[in-house]
């Protein structure tokens, strides 16, 4: 899956003031990503506020994104959930030829055992022929996919081809790299940890910050893949404050505020999320202006 080496972006879903989907804003965002050199796009990941979207809205966004991209970069579709049977039905109905892979978050809230997580992903793998990227984000799901479960899934199912890791656990990352099959990809799911994870062998990132700063994120990953770590470190430290501001009041409220500052799309989110505070808006405006001048 060479198309998943590099920087992929988990696209936000732009909204209008009335809560409807802002397709003009989504078009602007997609063009901004492609023009800035982003390697691939992820539609309907958790950053896209997928939990607040209807089935019809999700389909319209996936279709619109595919039409807008028109084959210019690879596409990944987000499909996850804590109702395995419902998720399998969604995957069996999904046959869009524009998408090269599936990103599937580990079941949340239920707190399944490791055997439950294994059986969930077994069912997912058997429901689609598309390559699958596991998504381990225990801070949101309430449960960790252990190294043993990740390696077991990687060995047992040829279409489980990688994991997006957002556990912030370096022993965990190291043991994945030490035990994984050769073909299996480790992908950073945490912008602030992309550089150190890539030094361990990760092939890239699925980024949030890259919504607002795609060229810098893509170059950081490129430098790491080329072992140009001095240049990568410089970019890493330039982006560190932006990373913090993206998440200080929740994702994607922070990065949507940045996108509004940049004139890409509006900053509206759907409840239960709310926009960032006035104090954070001021900090974001200053940080965006500073980093844009540096660029």
Automatic annotation (TrEMBL):
InterPro entries attached to this UniProt entry: Aldolase_TIM, DapA, DapA-like, Schiff_base-form_aldolases_AS
Name of the molecule in the record: 4-hydroxy-tetrahydrodipicolinate synthase
Binding partners and assembly: Homotetramer; dimer of dimers.
Catalytic activity: L-aspartate 4-semialdehyde + pyruvate = (2S,4S)-4-hydroxy-2,3,4,5-tetrahydrodipicolinate + H2O + H(+)
Annotated pathway: Amino-acid biosynthesis; L-lysine biosynthesis via DAP pathway; (S)-tetrahydrodipicolinate from L-aspartate: step 3/4
Residue positions binding pyruvate: 47, 206
UniProt family annotation: Belongs to the DapA family.
EC number(s) given by UniProt: 4.3.3.7
Function: Catalyzes the condensation of (S)-aspartate-beta-semialdehyde [(S)-ASA] and pyruvate to 4-hydroxy-tetrahydrodipicolinate (HTPA).
HAMAP family for the chain: DapA
Domain of life of the source: Bacteria
SMART domains attached to this UniProt entry: DHDPS
Subcellular compartments: Cytoplasm
The keyword Lyase belongs to this UniProt entry's keyword annotation: yes
UniProt organism field: Olivibacter ginsenosidimutans
Keywords of this entry: Amino-acid biosynthesis, Cytoplasm, Diaminopimelate biosynthesis, Lyase, Lysine biosynthesis, Schiff base
Positions bearing the site annotation: Part of a proton relay during catalysis: 46, 109
